[in-house]
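Protein: Tetratricopeptide repeat protein
Species: Alienimonas californiensis
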Amino acid sequence: MTPSPDDPLRFKFRFLNEQGQPAGLFRKKGRWDGETLTLDDVTLPAAALMDVQARDKLLFLVVPVENDSTAEEAAGPRAGTIGASFSGNATAQSLKSALDVARSAAWAESHREQLEAAGRGAAFRSATCPHCEATAVLSDMPKTPQVFCAFCETLWTERAAADPPAWETAHRICDECGYFAAPRKFTVFYFYFLLVVYGWNVRATWRCPACMRGDAWKMLVVNAPFVLGVPVALTQLARTYGSDLTGGPYAGLDAGNKAARAGKFDAAIARYRAILERLGAAAGVKYNLGLALAGEGETNRAADAFLASLDDCANYAPAYQRVAPLLEQSGRTEELAELRRQWA
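Structure follows.
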């Protein structure tokens, strides 16, 4: 059932304090009516939300904040963050997905109206993400085999949009290392027993297998004398090697990323090129190739790799953000000007 003003989704939540912990003892009431999110006495139109992120039961909303002075207005809009912890009949992830669909559609419609007002209505182009149903605006960008969804951070292949493979949604940029990978949730668990004193420490972390591998080995070694933590450590260790062992289109990606993190860029580049030999469009892998070449100091070759990534996916924001300063640094002004025109 789609929420509406007459039949909204109602839920309970608690605001997060500055330390990221739920504030207060009692849950507050919230509602989502398909257009507006209400958190207690805070009303937030979906179109006004600058960013939405979710992790487990936590939701983070980036919202515009009024400037206090003329000088601040000249510097551009300010932003603030609202955090909430959810329970009941709405999860943070499902609410994020609904907000992304609504705000992306509103932004796309606003963009279309702006183009029509400028006499360029025919230039409007968009695509719907097959994974989260958000709208990606593609106006003025060339058609490419892949499309990037800035809302769920997924690269998808247009020809397979009707029946997208499951592995597409698993791959994105890792927050920790910055490489295209398959970040996932890992559990870090330590158990200790010292004569009559015992205890444990457990926390969840989101990172790619290459980033987690070292910590997984450390967890196994530290837990080994106390036995109880070993099963958890072995499970997490196996998960850090799983994607390389089971194959698939991105087999070898974690090994390449691990080599790149260790500064072994030649080995990483060889891994990425091997993946590219068996894949068609692979904007994410070419992005990693650009990072590795940049790590070797190969500015022009790195820029070429990022441009190749954009040839596979014209709206791939991570590649654009990396290539623009490299083109400027290399004096490739005509290529930079064309890119900026597409991204204006």
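Remarks: The longest strand covers residues 184-194.
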